[in-house]
Amino acid sequence: METHDPKKGISWIPNRTSLQDSQPAPNKPNSSESRESECNIVAVGKRRDGGMRYWCLRHKADATAKYGTKAEACRASHLPPIDELEILSLRLEDYPGGVALWGAVPPVYDTTLNPLDRGIHVHARRATSEAKEIDQTFRAVRLLDNRLPSQGVLVSELDAIYYMVSAVFSCEMKYVVCSFCDYPHLDRDWFSVHPHHRHLCAGCGNLFRDTRIAVGNPICGVQDLWNQEARVQHPSNRILEIRQSEFPGGIQIWGSNPAFIWTSPKNEAEGIHVHAYEDGTSLPQLDDTYAQVIIDGVDLDPTMVRIAMAQSALPHLKERVLTLDCPSCGHVLFNTGELAFTPIAKHRCPQCSYQFAGGGRFRKTIANPIGGVLQRLAKEAPRERRQHDLGLLTETL
Q: Domain segments of the chain: what residues?
């Protein structure tokens, strides 16, 4: 059932939690007949080659097979919906000490044994001076507040993850709804970093045009309803210098990214966020954001870490982000701006202007030195560094 706020003109569909997730559904039948019966596939128009396009209305995903024929099951049929038990209902006025919500992805460096962290990370305090009552990651959060619709507003994990990606790469975002079915639109993967005005609706599978070139994200509608003012992060004034041997429980490293909801009177810190564990307990001994982080003599660059974190959430960049040294002068390249999310075939050294191919599995690549830095760091780790994969579906042209 769709709900609508006539004052703001913003629609919300509470069951948006049927959007994609990477984990396989337990006890999911494997037969094609079972998968097809669960999908609700309809024809939604012609392709450029004359074949038909098909869309699954149940799983909100493409169901077009080769040569424009109807697939047995859509590409998201194996992905489970978000269960009600995985949704946090959060009443904002219950936490006058401050609430903060971020898109959470796995750390760029992880030597702990903690489970994969992805979704919406929530901090909530009853009072500014008190410890966090909530410090946890959820697959979805239902926001409740007297400034929001009475039934609340639901934010899914993919909304939060791609909000983080678009924010890190400074892409303009806005609230977009399908002109055919009013379904709130989320731009994912390639589309989350390339503003555009022609969108493919996940709700009905139709192509529609919006009024302005931007990246669509339902979180922008939450901010509009809640009248969240534009904020900037303030650089942290903390410096951390440690050795991994001091924390046998492991270390986790993230780049900071702006919270999409922030109600605390304190400033939000920008830098490198570190968790460090002296043992295998669930609570880290270090849990803070730092302007400079030096581990085992290795100095981490906050910009490289932050960009690497966003790059890890873009499936179309998988295995394309490499550590590249100029073959002529040895300068280590670091692609920023649009080149941080746009792979290229030829790289030009900013030091000596030598042009060279990136190498690797793919012809077009992106340079980020942090991969090599973290490999050096892993040599001193008390246990093997873990490699995480979000498993998000690729969405490209």
A: 24-70, 83-226
